[in-house]
Design goal:
The protein is α/β, with parallel strands linked by helices. The chain contains 14 helices and 12 strands. It is flat, with a radius of gyration of 23 Å.
C-alpha cells in the first residue's frame, strides 16, 4: 500500500528544504528563487513508531522494518496557476496524483528571502493556493455536472448519481468552500466522488514554517494558521525547516541533545509524518518474530483479511484466521508466549476489525 502526500505552497516558503530534511537527502534543489523544483521529487520516509522498537527488543528480532509514507515535492504555485500562470496546470496535475496535501506556509520574517508578494501573511498565502485549486475544480465540474444532469433527465442511473454528488461539490465551490465538505449519501455517491479526483477534496495538513526561536511554541502567525485549520477541520503543525536541515547533518546521538537545548522533545518532521499518517486515516499493525519486526499500514476500519492482503494478496485470498495480540498485552506479558499463557492471544476471523497496534500472525490456505 503506497500513500503519498504532496508538499505545496507559494515559492520560497521552505517546501524543498522541508522535503530534503524529510527524506534526509538533497534530492530536491533548495534555492532562493521561484520554480527551482521543475519536476516533482518523490521520497519515501519511515513513519516513527516507538512501539516497533519495543516489540523487536522483546522478540529479539534481527531486523526492524518500519512502515513508510511517500512525500512529493511539488513546485510553488502562484496566483493564476489554474489558468496557466507560472508553471500552471502541470503542477495541478501533480497535486491530483497525491492522496493528501501538505501545505507549507511561511510564518517567519527574513529580509534575505524574498516573497513573491513582498509580504509575510500565511493566511493570504493559503488563500492564493486554495483559490487556484478551487478554480481548477470549478472548471473541471461545471461542464461535467451539466452533462450528467442532462443524461439524468433521460433516466440514466449513473448520471443521476453523478449529478447529485458532484452537483453538491460544485455548489460548495461556488460558495468558496472546498469540495471535501461534500457529504456523499451512500456508497455509490462515495465512489463517484472519489473517482472525480477533485483537488479540494483531498485532506490538508498545514505546516507552519517558523524561525528557530519559535520552533517550540510557534508564534502569532502560526497561531492564525492553527485557528484556520481548526475552523476547517484540518490539521496543523509547527516546524522550523532550518532546524530540520541542521538535524539531518548531525550524527544520531547528537540530535536529542540539540533538540533538548531548543526546548523540543522530538523533531518537527516526526510530527509532520505522523500527522500525515493520521490525515489519511491510516493505522499500523505489526508482525513480529526472530527474523524481523515489521510495521504494516492499513486503513481505519479494515477487516482482518484486508490487513492480511497488505502483506500478500494470497494471505487475503486464502485467509483462515488471524492470531492476534494487543500491543499492550504483548509488551506487558513479555511477548507471544506470555500472552498465549495468559489467554491474551486471540483467534480472530474474517469479520474482525483490526485495531491500531495489533500484533498479528495470519493463517491462510491457497
Amino acid at each position: 500500500m503506497g500513500f503519498r502526500c504532496g508538499i505545496v505552497g507559494l515559492p520560497n516558503v521552505g517546501k524543498s528544504t522541508l522535503f530534503n530534511a524529510l527524506t534526509e537527502t538533497q534530492a530536491a534543489q533548495a534555492a532562493n528563487y521561484p520554480f527551482c523544483t521543475i519536476e516533482p521529487n518523490v521520497g519515501q520516509v519511515a513513519v516513527p513508531d516507538e512501539r516497533l522498537d519495543k516489540l523487536a527488543a522483546i522478540a529479539g528480532s534481527a531486523k526492524i522494518i518500519p512502515t513508510q509514507l511517500g512525500f512529493v515535492d511539488i513546485a510553488g504555485l502562484v496566483k493564476g496557476a489554474s489558468k496557466g500562470e507560472g508553471l500552471g496546470n502541470q503542477f495541478l496535475g501533480n497535486i491530483r496524483e497525491v492522496d493528501a496535501i501538505v501545505h507549507v506556509l511561511r510564518c517567519f520574517e527574513d529580509d534575505d528571502i524574498q516573497h513573491v508578494a513582498n509580504r509575510v501573511d500565511p493566511i493570504a498565502d493559503a488563500e492564493v493556493v486554495e483559490t487556484e485549486l478551487m478554480l481548477s475544480d470549478l472548471d473541471s465540474l461545471e461542464k461535467r455536472v451539466a452533462a450528467a444532469a442532462k443524461k439524468a433527465t433521460a433516466g440514466d442511473k449513473e448520471a443521476k448519481i453523478t449529478a447529485s454528488v458532484l452537483g453538491q461539490a460544485l455548489a460548495l465551490l461556488r460558495e468558496g468552500k472546498p469540495a471535501r465538505l461534500t457529504e456523499p449519501r451512500d456508497d455509490d455517491e462515495a465512489r463517484v466522488f472519489a473517482q472525480a479526483q477533485l483537488l479540494t477534496a483531498k485532506p490538508v495538513l498545514y505546516v507552519c514554517n517558523v524561525a528557530e526561536a519559535d520552533a517550540a511554541e510557534g508564534n502569532a502567525l502560526s497561531a492564525k494558521v492553527f485557528a484556520k485549520a481548526q475552523a476547517e477541520g484540518a490539521q496543523a503543525v509547527v516546524v522550523s525547516a532550518a532546524i530540520e536541515s541542521e538535524l539531518v547533518a548531525m550524527p544520531g546521538e547528537e540530535r536529542a541533545e540539540f533538540l533538548s537545548e531548543l526546548g523540543l522533545t522530538e523533531s518537527g518532521l516526526a510530527r509532520v509524518i505522523r500527522a500525515g499518517y493520521r490525515l489519511l486515516g491510516l493505522n499500523t499493525f505489526f508482525t513480529v518474530g526472530p527474523k524481523e519486526a515489521r510495521a504494516w499500514t492499513f486503513h481505519t476500519g479494515a477487516k482482518a483479511p484486508q490487513a492480511a492482503g497488505e502483506i500478500h494478496t494470497d494471505f487475503e485470498r486464502g485467509f483462515i484466521r488471524a492470531e492476534t495480540i494487543a500491543y499492550d498485552d504483548y509488551v506487558t506479558l513479555g511477548g507471544e508466549a506470555g500472552a498465549r499463557e495468559a489467554g491474551k492471544l486471540r483467534q480472530e476471523g474474517k469479520e474482525y476489525l483490526v485495531q491500531d497496534g495489533d500484533v498479528m500472525l495470519f493463517k491462510f490456505n491457497v
